[in-house]
Amino acid sequence: NVTLSVGLLSYTFLRRTMKDDIVVPVLDFQIQDDHIVPLVYGSQGDWDSSLKIILDWSPFSSMGELLQQFKDIESHGTKVVIYDLWMNDDGLLELDFDDDDEDILLRDQAKATAGTTKIQKEIIEQHISHRLRFSLRAYTSILYLKKYANFQIILRGKVVEHINIAHDLKFKKIFTYKPQVT
Predict the structure, then answer these.
(1) CA–CA separation, 136 vs 113, rounded Å?
(2) What is the DSSP letter of 30?
(3) Which one of 51, 69, 87 terminates a domain?
(4) pLDDT, tens only, 146-164
(5) Are 65 and 23 found together in one domain?
(6) Start and end of every Morc S5 domain (predicted)?
(7) Which domain holds residue 9?
């Protein structure tokens, strides 16, 4: 069966509702006869409660608007909607969408190499470990150790190139694990 899922991860929701634990309301749907129908694993009440939370705390005001989000990912995939970002002390969004057309950056983190020489700064800035701290493209490029033929991550309309981070390790050591039988 083809299934579709929607989840809400919102720090604002957790703070304003004073949740002690991380709560992620999730809605599941399945495709039946070319129609999207709710897939209820627990109780209908829990499903309805998750729908109400998602509609109250997301930019979507109806289930129809929410389901529209599936239209452009066809029969499989994941879509992340970033909504209601916070502002920093300068009144700028916490995420930077303007400095790089192909990436989403944490604002002001790229400039965190103060106090280093020019050569040190160039070396630091070229290494993936530096970009991991502020670049969503760099972070998603190393999420999987293995590259899969039928899988790709697209960020801002461009495919993220896979990087096997194990190849970038400077001080490699291989340990053979030998289980101890007692």
Answers:
(1) 19
(2) E
(3) 69
(4) 888 888 888 998 999 998 8
(5) yes
(6) 134-181
(7) 2-69
